[in-house]
Amino acid sequence: MKYTPVIGLEVHVELYTKSKMFCSCSADYFGKKPNTHTCPVCLGLPGALPVPNKKAIEWCIAIGLALNCQIPTFSKFDRKNYFYPDLPKGYQISQYDQPFCVNGNITLSNGKKIRITRAHMEEDTAKLTHAEVNAKNVSLIDFNRSGVPLVEIVTEPDFENAVEVVEYLKLLQQTVRYLGVSEADMEKGDMRLEPNISLKRPGENGLPGYKVEVKNINSFKFVEKAINFELERQKELLEKGETPKQETRGWNEQKQATLSQRSKEEAHDYRYFPEPDIPLFTISREDVTKTKKSLPELPQAKLARFKKQYSLTSYDAEILTREKQTADFFDEAVKIGNAHNIIPKQIANIIINKKTDLEKTLPAELIRTIKAQTSRVTIDQSDLEKIVGEVIKENKNIVAAYKAGKTNAIQVLIGIVMQKTKGQANANDVKSLLENQLR
Amino acid sequence: MLNNLSLQQAKQLLRQKKATSLELTRFYLERIKKLEPKISAFITVCEKEAQDQAKKADELLSQGDKKPLLGIPISVKDNFNTIGIQTTASSKVLESYIPPYDATVVASLKRAGAVIVGKTNMDAWAHGSSTETSDFGPTKNPWNIKTLPGGSSGGSAASVAADEVVASIGSETAGSIRQPAAWCGVVGLKPTYGRVSRYGVVAMGSSLDSPGPITKTVEDSAMILNILAGKDKFDATTSPNIVEDYSKNLNKNISGLKIGISSKYFKKCESEVEKKVEQALKVFEELGAKIQEIKLFDPQYAIAVYTIIQRAEVSSNLARYDGIRYGNGRSKFGEEAKRRIMLGTYALSAGYYDQYYNKAQKVRTLIIEDFKKAFKQVDVIVGPTSPSTALPLGASKGHPMFGEMADILVEPSSIAGLPGINVPCGFSREDLPVGMQIIGPQFSESIILNVANQFEKNTDFHKVKPKL
Q1: What is the domain-level CATH number for residue B433?
Q2: On chain B, which terminus has fewer CB atoms closer than 10 Å, C or N?
Q3: In the 8-state DSSP scheme, what is residue B355?
Q4: Contact state of B320 with A40 under an 8 Å Cβ cutoff
Q5: How confident is the model at residue A405 (pLDDT cuts 50, 70, 90)?
Q6: ipTM reported for the complex, 2 dp
């Protein structure tokens, strides 16, 4: 029988604001001495009160806007009540029915739209470590992480396989990094994923009557494995005529399997109610517009522009836009290179082949280096003509496009020639040779 | 010479160097030692700290320092965090808790130069109106030690009535300042919600809690409000509204002032209380005020709303005492706290939220609107503070709704976040004080303080002291 996977995602992204969500303690906790970034508020001491971090809310809204969300005018915080030793107040301040961001979407490379249900703001918990001290098993609590701002991004169950999930996650990670609001380092726990997975029987209407949430996934590789494992496990159960249990499972890397953690019967009633310590928010449209305008060019837009404006292949553009710093460097280098007849492809090659350390080089320096190289070693004119001829023969599609009026296509051909000559030719010479031969 | 000093009088004495802060502080510490076996107003007496603070104050006084409370001995309810001094909220759960920080109110008092002589008894977690639910034993009413002081700020009110301090700080969720002030015959001001910071006050009903002064005179109340009021960066619910000089408008003519009364409030009272408040209204009339009957919701609706919202908030606020921190586990919670946790948890549970909590919030909005409408017709509302005078010790036992009944006349205005002040307005046949409350619109503290002061200036009830 053919089952259709139904997968939704909850992703927690930790913001790297200077201070925590509700107090002025430093939010930079990673690797710091335990319990040194604490105060009455993040320790949940009697009488302490939360004061929301404006920057964190602004960043949450920026994430929402980057994911094409709507930003409702009214929003509020709620208390999510549950007991756990890492939660000093006995409740987490989160958002329930009026999050900052709702109804967004993101389009995957296969054209499929993934709907974003919501993106909301909450606080992180403290960190538990189970250790042995003086031959006794103990649990230690480090409150440095308690109260660090978290944004939870929830999708509709629109994914059908692990590949789509991983693409979405990478894009999300790239997006928050572009926004400069999180390092989104999975290993450090800046970004945490919880897929919920179920299978739809053929002909079944609506969503399946159960879902399995998988926790404890801290890399893109694990998410892929965990999803594939779950789909297989659930398929086997369904084929036996059983319905998989609604439960929370954890990915166990050693066993390469998901293991049951908590079943539906133990599910929490969080007794949400509006956080009385924080007044309601009215988000002005002006502020939303301002935040929207301040957003940088986002990864997908940049990728598309690089391909079009610089005539780069998808492969090249993808590498160049993976990190904003690289993309910005490239943009700048192209601008300078233009004046020196150095084409984007030449610059792209150098960056992609990591021939230069971007952190230590300025774009202008890179261009100088390229220029020096190309003027020092030159290629024999007849050899160059030969190569140009070959390239025209080998790239019929591009040539056809050029002849059909897509004059930009010549840039691609120049790029290929430049690659073949290892950058020894002069791009202008190549261009006129190509133009001659294509006439 | 040092007996029964108001804050204003104590201040003058110190300024005129007729007494030092250390003398004054020692006088009160002695008095506390003498009276505590009878009254039990305090949980902690800070003998050493108080004398150290007094010495410092004397140094500053000799340099001509003008801090508004410099050298004045006061007490603070035990739900205000005080750095280095045990803060229990009268619960065994916190009996060994020593806070590493000061509540904003405490910090403000210290900045103003006050000498904190001790932490006063209260109903455990401020759950109650008797101070009988304290895990450290009840406080007794200085007017008759066989009766209750009211609560939850019963220790604060008793400490002021017994002249164990110059003034005290209490907190009110619904009645916890005004009702004990009424039963102990002192002035108790519950400010507008958000006027005084809650930061560092052990949370009870977070959407209602309002710290405020309990004093011997209205003038003292205004002086302390001047120090406590204002926006606090540690409490997001404090108002940015400008803080007035509350001492400035205490002597305005109230001729023409429109005072609203609701017969629904009087009907709930013992006849003696009703009579005394009606007599008080005559004083206002003589001063030129106009008394008019207004329509207000029956206060019983406020009880229903309050019970649900407050229990819900309590159930969440007490979750942090989870047995992992603070030395004691949840088994140390008293009966009343357990009852409230269970009720609140139930009211917030899936499937019941809309039926209880949500509905209560809607009715709360209606009550707010009801008062808004009333304040279009009148400037202030006057009524009895409590339906009765001080009840005998033991009266709260076995009556889970004791507090709600004792506070029925203050709960509606608390639900609406309004300011209200209790002033003594007479004595019962048993010589127990009767209190009258003056309620105003939000942020009308200046007005109600003036109205209260006009009454006090033209009556002598505040001058009568209990015989101890």
Answers
A1: 3.90.1300.10
A2: N
A3: I
A4: no
A5: confident
A6: 0.96
